[in-house]
Design brief:
seven-stranded mixed beta sheet, 13% strand, 13 helices, three-stranded antiparallel beta sheet, alpha/beta, Aspartate Aminotransferase, domain 1, binds pyridoxal-5'-phosphate, globular, 374 residues
Length: 374
């Protein structure tokens, strides 16, 4: 993503590669040497390591973090007419997989501060057809898992956590991915733990569910030639598994680096006129996949930063219920006031573990200059 005219890229995957180049190169060479491209010891090893890091017994790897959501819902027997509640503000993978699994999407607004499910609205959306809830730990901040689990348990609903942006985030000291029936992770290259291609995975403590998920993701069987049901092909490949195993031990340090950079943004941007900084709710530990500010003249701020060589992203320009893909739901802005307001004000500033103080200083100066002048 970086180029000569970009003085501060949004993220810098190459900078991270250079810090672990030898280990990555030899891991890749090892997979090629052994022709261990599909399944095999490296995939098993990564599944064990990722589960162990969470203190969870089962990890089922998948081809990507969209399939993992779909695989989990399929294994939980989502069927036509079943309603699944999820956040109005997320990446479309979260909601499109509900439809793909045969269910009906029910959106819940966010809370206005954390970009996660508004626990106060959640219960009012439950009907006799509701089967589950997918909280999204968006941008790296956990959703209110006390409220989500209390409501889910009261109504006997399953919970699948969408942890795609929140590796190692914690809610009241407990890792995300350890609250619901299952948790879905993406290892898309730009995520906090990223492969060098598509990759994803699921965590669960439920052995029977893990078996159903693995079976469905592997053509309906657990071993070659075994097809107990019709499934799909959603495998983590050997190259990605080997790469992820090299990167996994670095994840805690990379997470701490993201948190330090976020704390510096917080300190240096505090008090800037019209600028709303990310808010972290009590009891939640944010891992800053994204550092998302809000500004009433977002598009002008984004253009100003771009003209100074600073790359930013809007995550996301249209909240899910207002996308053409959901025209069938016929929603009104008043149903999702926070998600609706946020879609025109959010702006993600550059943040990545290898970001230098010099790069960050440029971003801060530029944001402050714009805000003071406008
Ligand atoms: C990235 C992402 C996904 C999907 O992951 P892929 O690996 O890209 O398929 C799902 N949910 C959220 C919130 C994401 O950010």
């Amino acid at each position: 993503m970086s180029s000569a005219s970009t003085s501060v890229p949004f993220a810098d995957l190459h900078a991270q590669y250079l810090t672990i180049k030898q280990d990555i190169d030899s891991a890749i060479a090892g997979v090629i040497r052994d022709s261990a491209f599909i399944r095999g010891a490296r995939v098993d090893a990564f599944e064990r390591q990722f589960a162990a890091m969470h203190g969870v017994s089962q990890c089922v790897s998948c081809a990507n973090g969209t399939d993992s959501l779909y695989v989990a819902m399929h294994a939980l027997n989502v069927k036509a007419g079943d309603e699944v509640i999820t956040s109005a503000h997320s990446w479309i993978a979260t909601s499109e997989t509900i439809t793909q699994a045969g269910g009906s999407v029910v959106f819940c607004d966010t809370d206005g501060d954390t970009f996660t499910l508004d626990a106060k609205r959640l219960e009012s959306l439950i009907t006799p057809r509701t089967v589950g809830i997918i909280p999204v730990h968006l941008y790296g901040q956990p959703a209110d898992m006390d409220a989500v689990m209390r409501i889910a348990n009261k109504h006997r609903l399953w919970v699948i956590e969408d942890c795609a942006q929140a590796h190692l985030a914690r809610f009241r000291g407990k890792l995300v991915g350890t609250f619901g029936r299952a948790a879905s992770f993406s290892f898309y290259p730009g995520k906090n733990l990223g492969a060098m291609g598509d990759a994803g995975g699921l965590l669960t403590e439920d052995g029977a569910l893990a078996e159903r998920m693995a079976m469905f993701a592997r053509h309906g069987g657990l071993t070659k030639g075994d097809h107990r049901i019709e499934g799909i092909n959603s495998r983590l490949d050997g190259l990605q598994a080997a790469i992820l195993s090299v990167k996994l031990p670095h994840l805690p340090a990379w997470t701490a680096a993201r948190q330090r950079i976020a704390a510096r943004y917080d300190a240096m941007l505090a008090g800037t006129p019209d600028l709303v900084l990310p808010k972290v709710a009590e009891g939640r530990e944010h891992v800053y996949h994204l550092y998302v500010i809000r500004h009433p003249r977002r598009d002008a701020l984004k253009a100003h930063l771009a003209s100074n060589g600073i790359e930013t992203v809007v995550n996301y320009p249209v909240a899910l219920p207002f996308l053409p893909a959901y025209a069938r739901l016929n929603v009104r802005p008043e149903q999702f006031p926070n998600a609706f307001a946020d879609q025109s004000t959010v702006l993600s500033l550059p943040i990545f573990p290898e970001m230098t103080q010099n790069q960050q200083g440029k971003v801060v100066d530029c944001v402050r200059k714009f805000c003071r002048a406008s």
